């Protein structure tokens, strides 16, 4: 059974590159990878935050005497940033690109669509959330597929057989990339786009069997980060009403559940029961983790979503009547 239950994303001795790695979920993921023996490269805009984050990551290292850590200052919203970052990380790794890339830089700016600054916010959300991930995925895939960057071999722990060790691209979407809400028009489309990109690439990487590449998608709920505080600063009251008693998850909980799903080889990883229901309701042509269960529940959820959508539409209409200016 060891062959079937193996870790699908081992990180020990490998190098992971994490965007948004100076705080929040990105820093949490970097710390977990360090604790599992990985070398870690973090990317963020602010040097001071990167320096503090590296110290925090180093404290979690499983093998401090051999593990290495590196920080790169870059803005993921800047066109062309990713090629420079991948080149920097590759040079730091003695000419070999990182084997694992997790795109975690992101933000949310909920606003009503008719507000004055909404379009500006929507463009910036797309620049950070979608283009930041899209550019990084293209840059790292090109680096992996260069001549001479063939698949390394990894030994299984039990069968003592050899198999190609896959590279990994991990995208970070949101439960709102399966089911959008009023007030999230500036944000949700960027995450829908990330999900669509991941679904496309999971098929496209099959063209390169000589360099196995695994594409993964994490769909978290709200997370207790500074970013969540900034999100709530612009969130309309009607959006709060639609979200109901949304209790954000801790960084440690989200990272722990995400890494566990990645190690199990799951494609689309949610971090809560409600998130799982939302995933089932909108799977489209996304890969299934369990064809029978996902298809069965996915066939039932549209009927449930009829009532959920009706209730949400009623909430919006009621809120508008009660809050319409006299």
TrEMBL record:
Pfam families tied to this protein: adh_short
EC category: oxidoreductase
Main location (coarse class): endoplasmic reticulum
Pathway: Sphingolipid metabolism; Lipid metabolism; sphingolipid metabolism
EC number: 1.1.1.102
Transmembrane portions of the chain: none
Intracellular or extracellular location(s): Endoplasmic reticulum
Entries under InterPro entries matching the protein: KDSR-like, NAD(P)-bd_dom_sf, SDR_fam
Keywords: Endoplasmic reticulum, Lipid metabolism, NADP, Oxidoreductase, Sphingolipid metabolism
Alphabetical list of PANTHER family matching this protein: 3-KETODIHYDROSPHINGOSINE REDUCTASE (PTHR43550:SF3)
The protein's role, per its UniProt record: Catalyzes the reduction of 3'-oxosphinganine (3-ketodihydrosphingosine/KDS) to sphinganine (dihydrosphingosine/DHS), the second step of de novo sphingolipid biosynthesis.
Name of protein: 3-dehydrosphinganine reductase
């Amino acid at each position: 059974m060891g062959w079937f239950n193996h870790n699908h994303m081992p990180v020990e001795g490998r190098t992971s590159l994490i965007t948004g790695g100076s705080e929040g979920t990105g820093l949490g993921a970097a710390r977990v990878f360090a604790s599992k023996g990985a070398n870690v490269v973090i990317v963020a805009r602010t040097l001071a935050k990167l320096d503090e984050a590296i110290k925090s990551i180093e404290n979690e290292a499983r093998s401090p005497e051999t593990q290495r850590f590196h920080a790169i200052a870059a803005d993921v919203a800047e066109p062309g940033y990713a090629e420079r970052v991948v080149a920097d990380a590759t040079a730091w790794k003695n000419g070999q690109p990182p084997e694992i890339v997790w795109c975690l830089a992101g933000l949310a700016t909920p606003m009503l669509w008719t507000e004055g600054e909404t379009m500006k916010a929507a463009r910036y959300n797309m620049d950070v959330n979608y283009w930041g991930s899209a550019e990084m995925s293209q840059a790292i895939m090109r680096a992996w597929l260069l001549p001479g960057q063939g698949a390394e071999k990894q030994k299984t722990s039990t069968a003592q057989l050899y198999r190609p060790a896959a590279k990994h691209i991990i995208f970070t979407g949101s439960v709102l990339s399966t089911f959008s809400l009023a007030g999230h028009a500036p944000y949700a489309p960027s995450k829908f786009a990330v999900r669509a990109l991941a679904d496309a690439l999971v098929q496209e990487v099959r063209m390169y069997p000589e360099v196995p590449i695994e594409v993964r998608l994490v769909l978290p709920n709200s997370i207790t980060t500074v970013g969540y505080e900034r999100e709530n600063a612009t969130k309309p009251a009607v959006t709060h009403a639609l979200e109901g008693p949304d209790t954000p998850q801790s960084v440690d909980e989200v990272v722990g559940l995400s890494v566990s799903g990645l190690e199990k080889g799951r494609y689309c990883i949610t971090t809560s029961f409600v998130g799982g229901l939302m995933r089932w309701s909108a799977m489209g042509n996304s890969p299934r983790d369990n064809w029978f269960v996902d298809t069965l529940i996915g066939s039932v959820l549209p009927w449930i979503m009829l009532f959920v959508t009706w209730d949400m539409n009623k909430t919006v209409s009621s809120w508008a009547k009660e809050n319409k200016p006299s």
